[in-house]
Amino acid sequence: MGGDLSHSRSPHTREPVKHGCAPLPAACQASEGKAPHITSNHHIKKLGKPAAIAREEQGMDRKFPINSPHEGELLAEEYEHEPVPASARRSVGSLTTVWLGFPMIITCAMTGSMLVASMGFTKAFWAIVTGNVLLFVLVSAIGAVGAQTGMNFALLASNVFGKRGYVAASGLLSLLILGWFAVQVGFTGNILHAAFGYNYFLISLVAGLLYLGITLVGIRGLHWIGVVSVPMFIILGTWVAFDAVSRSGVEAVWSYAGTENGVPMAFGVALTVVVGLFIDGATVSPDFNRWAKNSLHSSIAAFVTFPIAHTYALLLGAVMTAALALPDADPFALDNMFGYMLKYGAPWLLPVAVIFPFVSFGSVCSHNLYMSAVNWSRIVGVKMRTAAVMLAAFGIAIAAGNVWSYFVPWLNLLGILVPPVGAIFVVHFYTVSREPGPVGLWRPTAFAAWGIGSLTAYLIDYLAPQMSTSISSFFAAAIAYWVISRLVLGVEMKEAGQSIAN
Question: pLDDT of 480-493, one tens digit each?
Answer without folding.
Answer: 999 998 888 665 55
